Each structure stands twice: as structure tokens, then as C-alpha cells.
Amino acid sequence: MAAHGGSWQLMAANLQADPRLASSQIPLYPKIHIAVAEPSAAMLVRHLSYFVTLARERHFARAAEASNVTQSTLSAALRKLEDDLQVALVVRNQRFVGLTVEGEHLLAWARQILIDYDSLREDLSGLRTGLKGTLRLGVIPAAMGAVGFLTTRFREAHPDACVEIRSLSSREIQKGLDGFEIEAGLTYLENEPLDRVRRVPLYHERYILAMRADHPLAAEAQVSWEQACGQRLVLLSEDMQNRRILDTLAAAFGLELRPTVVSNSFLGVCAHLREGGFVSIVPQTFRHLFGGTADLAMRDFAEPTPHQAVGLVLSERDPLPPMASALLRTTLGAPFAATVEAAERRPIP
């Protein structure tokens, strides 16, 4: 296999040499000097794809269905993969039990090889016809109000590409980048920073109080954190980093946030602002989304409040996949902070 022959041999050598396998109770093939036969590129990619699908589905029938093959075809391909590598990858009885130690080791290699292969095909295709395919972008709920600034610029540069936006926590963004499930993320850069990523600062997040226009606090030019904490609050749930940031800020003023309603989505938060006298502490980018809505009001806090850096995160791998690389090129040097500030200055009720 021309593209991955080195990776195939190195992967086989690592599976045989992994020191964790010495203590494994799973029967191993004899450790002898072997010459690994290199399957064709198409066969290797197909077999690795079946293996990754089985690891995800954890069920032979579901994995076969997801791969659009019969269960016997999938099983035969997996046994061929085991024969080529001379290690057992799957624990079987009448059903899927799990991966062996060797199988878990292979899984990381397989994901990397598959993403590299797809990236190579996308890159070569892009040279001929321009960038096509789908950019998968993980975005924390607090940054949803600003994501349009990012994706619009990307689409202007690459009109044949599509964008899939996933609402994820910062921890899920880390998992998505590590597992090659997303190309990039939009998240906090300094608070609970992610590992193994390259960072591109875009803007700073600060906080405002949102409420109905007929709420008593809407008559104020500014509000205090003490006033906000005394209201009927609807906030993000504690599994969201934005909520943990707000809890820390309130504690710095000697206060505690005690929301009556919590949600892991700002849609759930905003749905309550029009009902029951609720108020919420939201990022200033929500002015851009709801500032022109006549029945909602948004007020600044009187006290100086620390800002949070928000930006783009991508894998530190080099080279980046084509979609991630294209997004990075359209982001570098773009005036995102000024764009966010300009949107915030629009008149509000």
C-alpha cells in the first residue's frame, strides 16, 4: 500500500511490541519474526472502517448494517485483519463482548489512518474542483450567538462546502477533536483550557442580564450582581462551563447563584425569559440575537466583571485535515472582536 505502507508495518510492530500485552490474559499469536503482507489500499481502508464501526456500535449486526454489508462479510473482513496483523482484536462468543488489549491499541491507529486517508482524498479533490464536503464544528452553547460570524466567512471563501454545527460542552469538544469526530471547536480558551490543540483567539465574552421589557429591573440603566442574584433565575446547568464561570464570578462578589430552572441549552433558557418573571445572565453576543426583540430587555452590570477569551480550537496535528486548514485560513486576521462589538452596539429596547 503506497500511501500507508509505513503506517501499516509500524502499526503491526507496535501491536506486537506493546508492553501492556505481556500481562494480558488474552491468548496471543506467537511473537515471531513476521513479514506483514500489505493489503491493497482499498481493502485496508475498508477493513479498518469495519473495525472502527464495530468498536462504535459494539454489536456485529448493527455494525454490519451501518457498513452496508452482511454480517458474514464484516466478520470475514475482521478475521482477515486479525490474520494480517497476527493478533486477536475482538473478544467473541455468540455475540460481541469487547475489544482485546490489542484491539484497543489498534483503534487509535485505525481512526488516525482513516482520517488521514479521507483528508488525502479531500485535499487532492480540492485541488481539482475546490473544497467540498462538510465542516463539522463543535460550539459551546454560550458561543452560539457568535458562530455565524465564523461560518459565514468560511462559506464565502468556500461556497461548495457545507457546515454542520454541533452544540457541545467544552469537554465534548475535546473528545470530538481527539476522536476525529469534529474538525474544530469554538470554546473558551483560558478557563478550563483544552489539551493538544492549537488556539486562535476571536473575542472576549462578558455578561449582561436579560429579562422581559416589563420587568422592574428593565427600568434601570445598569444592574448589580446582588440584584441579579435576588431574582428568579434561569441559567445553564452546571455541566456547562458557562455556568461554572458564572458561579465563580458570583462567588467573587460574595454571592451565590440559585437558579429556579436550569437547562443545558440556551434555547431552554431563553424560552423562560418571556414567562414567569425569569431573568438570566447571558453572554453579550445575545444582544446580537435578541436585541431587536421588543418584549425583551438586556442590561449591563454596574460592577467590572472579568472577561473570558473565546476562540477557535483545532487539533495540533500537522498537516491539518483540509476542512480544518481551510477554516483556519479564513479565520486568521479576521476582525472578529470588532464584528462582535459592532453587533453589540445595535440599538436595544
From TrEMBL:
GO cellular component, one term: cytosol
Protein name in UniProt: HTH-type transcriptional regulator CynR
HTH lysR-type domain boundaries: 43-100
Sequence similarity: Belongs to the LysR transcriptional regulatory family.
The keyword DNA-binding appears for this protein: yes
Pfam family, one: LysR_substrate
Keywords noted in UniProt: DNA-binding, Transcription, Transcription regulation
Record-level Gene Ontology MF annotations: DNA binding; DNA-binding transcription factor activity
Species the sequence originates in: Methylobacterium dankookense
